[in-house]
């Protein structure tokens, strides 16, 4: 046990076209577009109030916030954040008098709320922790422990003793306790699967000492992914997609058999792909009511009420996370297109809303462009594809150039939420279009899994279709379409400039360039992912060769700019270095910007600002009508 550390730091206080578009009094600099971008998440509640993580790009670390019902406080701790599976989640467990948290160094610390200090609970440099849950009956913390390439469900005592509750599965997630602490449920999955493909649900009783009794497990009636188990009283509910969408199901056991009963719900996903532990998109409310998130054409909606009569609430927001209940009030982290994230309180009876934190106007006096949904129509071969379009906020002489953004993942999605870097481009005469190509989450199981064996094909086709659609509709200049993506989106960029002639230039931000090499280097969580996306290489050698950008550098006919972090452990630096060398060997002159002190996803404000400035120079330099972009 280390020494005591003080932790209180005190209280804190429709697209318009052409000349009709309002002219802003100022615009963001590159530094303003990255400074002060506050992200809030991992909200949890206890009798002491609400706790959440807050990541401010200007601080360079993630901090712990506490709202005690009247005041907003910062609890001074080391930088926080789980690293389980490489993506973390479930960093906090809140008790009436303390919060247990995971630090960036993967130490478990106990933060005493009343005394205003923190102490180290567990210090194991070779272990990562996540999915924390407070067992208030026994004063223990339940967690997913990751060590030496293995995971287990464990319980940690107040003095830091760790006891294994369950092991044997490749991955664990979503532990949850019944209100009386006598029952526990959790999720597991096995390699080579990802948690949005196939998972197993477990249920057990806990005795007075916290040992598991009467352990049972089940899978859906047909193949599917279960996530986010939660108890409503003693009744267990889950979100399962075995009928095509992540929807709520009630589970009861008759002997060893699980009985599945569907709740009334539309054909919409009620959650997104579980890259992180600890997400909550549904939760029970007093009086038999529920709060549930639904995704409708890429936009999150929050619905509250009795099972068969839910009402949409908080309609000014477009994404909702971390649903929690305290003293009958619903709390969540909500996002919108024109403001920073908020911590929102909702009265389930009156449906009244109150913002407890956040919602700042990011740059007063600057017009903030909000997105429009667009849908690329279905064809005889291809499904409809949805995206979000942001027009320029300054007058342009003709149709604007556009930056098409391919999201990462690739099993992920884009949402219509505030992003200052999009505003940076709109204020310089560019349009921006984010595309939920095939394989994106939020559009049902079939759409999400359609990228299996087709990565580098269907995603590329959909980006090209989006470019053609926006050009045909007169929204953008079809001769000035740029394509940009990070990580898996960077791979889509490279395949797009190889396989199509739709784009005038491309930008790969720490993007995948050689899937076969990445397969041998990637971390355990995604070790089977590439085989699912492309097929096993021993079975599909020609496909792997065809879908490896590095092998086709000679086919690239457009300029490409690369950004890479020297400390990247997900897409290792070799990926970008060898691609650039292959392009040079083919007679091209790719532009490379190397940031030795960055990992996967740049974090330092000075580096993010430099990247924006380099991109701005690159796009202007390769636009055929660059003078239209200020």
Write the layout of secondary structure elements.
Blueprint lengths: L4 E2 L1 E4 L18 H5 L3 E9 L2 E8 L4 E7 L4 E4 L16 E3 L3 E5 L5 E5 L4 E6 L4 E9 L4 E8 L2 E7 L5 E6 L3 E7 L5 E7 L10 E7 L5 E7 L7 E7 L2 E6 L6 E8 L2 E6 L19 E3 L4 E8 L2 E8 L2 E5 L5 E8 L2 E7 L6 E5 L6 E6 L13 E5 L8 E6 L11 E5 L13 H7 L4 E6 L8 H5 L8 H15 L8 E6 L1 H12 L5 E5 L5 H7 L7 H6 L6 H6 L13 E6 L7 H13 L5 E5 L9 H17 L9
Parallel strand pairs: 33-34, 33-35, 35-36, 36-37, 37-38
Antiparallel strand pairs: 1-10, 2-6, 3-4, 4-5, 5-6, 7-8, 8-9, 9-10, 11-12, 12-13, 13-14, 15-16, 16-17, 17-18, 19-20, 20-21, 21-22, 23-24, 24-25, 25-26, 27-28, 28-29, 29-30, 31-32, 32-34
Structural notes for this entry:
- The chain has 630 residues and is an alpha+beta fold.
- It has 4 domains: 1-131, no CATH class; 169-279, no CATH class; 281-361; 372-624, Rossmann fold.
- The chain contains 10 helices and 38 strands.
- It is globular and about 70 Å long.
- Residues 6-25 and 625-630 have low confidence and may be disordered.
